[in-house]
Design a protein that fits this description.
By secondary structure, this protein is α/β, with parallel strands linked by helices. It has one domain: Rossmann fold (3-Layer(aba) Sandwich), CATH 3.40.50. 38% of the residues lie in helices and 16% in strands. The protein is built from five helices and seven strands, in the order βαβββαβαβααβ. A seven-stranded parallel beta sheet has the order 3-2-1-4-5-6-7, sandwiched between helices.
Length: 220
Amino acid sequence: MPSVLITGVFSNLGRAVAGTFADRGWTVYGTTSRQGQDKGNLDRLFVLDLSGRDVSFPQLDSLDVLVNNAGVFTECHIEDMTDCDYDRVFNLNVRGLIKTIQACLPLLKASDGSVVNISSMNAIHPGFGSTSHYDASKGAVSALTRSLAAETGLRINAVQSGLIHRPSLEGSGLEAYWKSHTVCPQLMDTSQIADLVYFLATCRGIYGQCVTIDNGFTLC
């Protein structure tokens, strides 16, 4: 039975990705930073602070797919940005991703496995303002995706997602702005993105690609 490790597995997207793999018979592992979290339907749960420097998975002896989903989003205007604002985003979104890939690389090479990084449409678009540090972190994720695919020879690809629907956005100005600036006036559903993650994880012949799924927002 093939196996997948999903970081940030209890986010809305993480849960959707886990369900997509589980429905297809995969063994599903996940990570969370929250102590005392029940693993639920996961086969194994690792409690780790991926923004730190010690990332390892000694209990795993095989792995077919890594999905780097863990990340943090904050807003801050450049004139107000502090080292703490910058570090909080880059330590998890970039360093955490690198550390996780390093930890899993021997297992992925042994299985001829693949990696799917969760980037953002903000890697190629200025987003909604006051997110330059976040946008830069996701730009780094997309650049790392291309470079590491070439360097490692593994199928490493990325999903550059648009704004994901959540109840707190309903009726908001951000939702209204999104709907007036995109081809398909709907926020992204996690199931759409999870299907793309699964496709990139399992499709042979795709290396170093950053696929944008945003209902046409970056076209407008």
